[in-house]
Design a protein that fits this description.
single chain, 62 residues, mainly beta, binds zinc ion
Length: 62
């Protein structure tokens, strides 16, 4: 099972689709390098009671 979320990169504002690394958890966060501008972002995600995925991205300190 693999889940994807779409977030907007805080650096270049492109929408990127990211696979959640731990799909059996309810929530989590992980570092990711934007595929468009290659800068580091921190993705925070959580799943609601219906199993729908919500994710947010913020700039990670280099
Ligand atoms: Zn970017």
């Amino acid at each position: 099972m693999e889940d994807f979320c779409t977030v907007t990169c805080p650096h270049c504002f492109q929408k990127i689709q990211i696979a959640i690394p731990d799909p059996f958890s309810r929530s989590g966060e992980f570092d990711y390098d934007c595929e468009v501008c290659c800068r580091a972002i921190l993705v925070k995600w959580q799943r609601d009671s219906g199993g729908e995925l919500f994710a947010d991205a913020e700039a990670a300190e280099a």
